[in-house]
Amino acid sequence: MWFEEIEEIFKGYLPYYILIFLPIFIIVSPVNPVTGSSEFPVYRMQQYDLHGIAHGCRSAGINLEAKSLTGWSTPRHCIVAKLGDLTVDSFKNIKLKAGALLIMLPNNLENLSPEDKQHLLILENAMIAQEISIPVYFSKYSPELETIVRDIDMNLDTNDMSKSAAEGIINSIAANGYQIVVSSSSPSLRNDAKIATIHGYIPGYSSDGKIQTIVIVAHYDSFGVAPELSFGADSNGSGVVILLELIRLFSGLYAEQKTRGKFNLVFALTGGGKINYQGSKKWLEDQLDSVDGSIIQDASYVMCLDTLAANDSIYMHVSKPPKEGSPSSLFYKELKAAAHNIHPAATVEGVHKKINLADDILGWEHERYSIRRLPAFTLSTLKSHKDFRKYTISDTRGNLDSDRLMRNTKIIAEALARQIYGVPSGEIFGNSWNIDNKHIAAWIDFLAKQPRSPQILSTKDNLLVATFKDTFNKFLRDVRITNAVPDKRDPDFQFYQLSSGTVNVYSVKPAVFDLVLTIGIVIYLLILYLLIERIPLLYNLACSFTLNAKMKVN
C-alpha cells in the first residue's frame, strides 16, 4: 500500500534529502550568516607598574554577553557604551562588578565641546589612577559599531521594571543579543623594555676661557588612557618641537666664530617622562656619578620644556626661588621682556612648588635635577602639574594651537639668545635668521601622527629614537644615547605586552531563546513522529469515511 512506501521513504531516503536540500535552503535564504559577525580594532587600557605599584587593567581576554550601561547585572556581562555616557561613578561600579568594558570613542575628538573635553579629562584621570582587574578596551568610532551600541541600548535592556511580565518574557525570548569576544592570552611582562635618552651639545666660546653651560631638556613621550591612542601633540610634542628648533637656530649662530655664544649648550631628549621621568633619572646618574666627568656638572641652569601651547601664559616652575642675579633669575627677566615685546597679551609668571621627598611621583621634570642640586626650572603653559591635559588621548594635532606654539617658540628663543649674547633689548632673531614656521609645523605633524606612549617607544631600534639621533648628529657634537632598563631585583618600571587587538561582535539570541527553540523542535518532531506512526490508522479512518459516503449516495 502507498503508506508503506511513504514509511520506506522516511526511513531510507529522508536523511539524504535533508543533507542535499538544507544547504541549498541556507544559501538561497535572504539572511546572510556572515552579517551576524563584526570585527573592529580595539585598544587596551594602559597597564604598567611604577615603583612596585600596579596601574591600569590587568586582563585582556573577553568572551561575554554584551549589555548596556543600564542593562547589565552580573560579571557575565561585557558593558558596551559610548564614552560620553560613561561617568566616574558608573565606571567604579563596572570595574568592581562587571566582566569587561568596551568603550566607543566619539567620532572626532577634535570637535568636542568644552564640557565634553572636561568630562573626558576627568574620566581618564579616574581610570588611570587605579588598578583594574577587568579588561577595558577602546574602539574608534564607526557607523557599524554605533548601530550595534544603539541596538544594545534598545533591545537588550530587558530588566526594565516598567514593562509587564508578559512583555519581559517576550523580549527576553525575541531580543537580538551580542557576544563580545577578544581572543587574547594573559598579558605578559616584557623583558626587553628600555628607555632611551639622546643628548648632544654645541660648544661655546669665551675670550677669558670661562665658559658656562646651559642645559635644555624635553621628554618626548606622551600619555593617555590607552597607549595606542596617546599622541601628545602638546604634551609633550610642543616641548620637543621647541627644543629641536632651538637646536637649529643656535647651531647656525654658533657655526661662525664671531657669533658663537659664551655658553655651552647641551640638549637632551629624555624618555619615560610620563612615568616619573625615568630617562632623566638614568641620564643624571650616568652624568653625575661617572668617573669620566660630566657635561652638566657645573651647569648654570637646566631648562625643561613641557606642554607649551595650552595657554597664552608661560609659567616658570621652580622648586626653589632663584637668587637675585643668578643665571636663572636673569633668564626669567629676559623671558618676561621677550614676551612683552613679541606678544603683549602673553604673561610670564613664576610658580614655586617644593619637592616632597616622601612622594614617589615628581610633579615636573626639573625636580629630578633639583634633587641633585642643579639649578633647574620647567617652562610650561600649565600652571599646575596636576592639570589633566598632560595625560589625555584628546591631545591631538587638531586640538593644538599652532600659532601659540610658534609664538612661544620665538619668545623662548629670544629670551635665551638675549642672555647668551648679553643683548639688553631689541630682537635678535629677525627676517634673515628667525624661527622657521615650516620646520616647526613639519615636526609637530610628524610627532602627532604616531602614538608615543613609553611602552611603544621602549622597543629595540625604535624609529622615532633613531630619527632624533639623526637630527642631533646633523647639528650637535658628541651625540650619545643613554638607555634606562628596569632593575631585575627592584624595578622602577615594568611594561606589559598586548596594547591593541581585535574584537569580534557576534549577533546571537539569548539563552532562553535556545531553550524555547529546543522545546519547539522537540514538540514538532514528536508530532511528526506520531503522524508517521499513525498513518495506517488515519488511512483506514479516511477509507471508512469514504466508504460510508458512497453507501449513503447509493
UniProtKB/TrEMBL annotation:
Domain of life: Eukaryota
Membrane-traversing stretches: 12-31, 511-532
A Gene Ontology cellular-component term: endoplasmic reticulum membrane
Membrane topology value: Single-pass membrane protein
Subcellular localization, as worded in the UniProt entry: Endoplasmic reticulum membrane
Signal peptide: none
Short name of one Pfam family: Peptidase_M28
Keyword set includes Membrane: yes
Domain Peptidase M28 intervals: 211-414
GO BP field: regulation of signal transduction
Keywords, ordered alphabetically: Endoplasmic reticulum, Glycoprotein, Membrane, Signal, Transmembrane, Transmembrane helix
Family in the record: Belongs to the nicastrin family.
Protein name, per record: Nicalin
Record organism: Phyllotreta striolata
